[in-house]
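Example 5.3 — SGNH hydrolase-type esterase domain-containing protein
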Amino acid sequence: MVKIICFGDSLTFGYQVSREEKWHAIAAKKTGIQLINRGVSGDTTVGMRGRIQQQVFNAMPEGVILMGGYNDVFFNRSWEPAAENMRAMVDQSRANGLQVFVAIPPPIQLPVAFKEGGEMVDFEKSAVMIEVYCQWLRDYSVSVRIPILDYRAAIDWTNKDLYLDGIHQSPAGHLLMAEQVIAFLQKTVE
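Solution (predicted structure tokens):
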């Protein structure tokens, strides 16, 4: 059975969504691919780099889906460090022989209703920076020939029912993400 680690922050973890309703669990059930969730709510790409050896490479999967960077923007008010960390994780993953996939997270839906630490974040400015970061992820992935799992491509995220709080996806949002990852994995997993 193919094993892929889903590695990232709360958007990977599935903040406040039951395990069976999370995108990776739905996709694993439908594809038969073992998708292991290693998302940590609140994590930055710095934190991801700190745990990638233990949680990804030591698990010896065939592949990794990397999705992170929003918290870097929220708390550091910049997208460039996230880009450098993603580049480093891609390089490390390739050096470890993994099939690498870069995921483009869903957009922020303003106004954000998320409250935990959110009073310190300017979500309107962050949303603009996140758009630049996501475009960088697309361009970078194309330049290094990495398959892109773009959660923005085929889903209309203007529907408020797809979010819990403007950042995190609802069970309905996770279902649409799962459908997208199923189609993506059927085309790309070797």
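Remark. Strands lie at 3-8, 34-39, 63-67, 99-104, 148-150.
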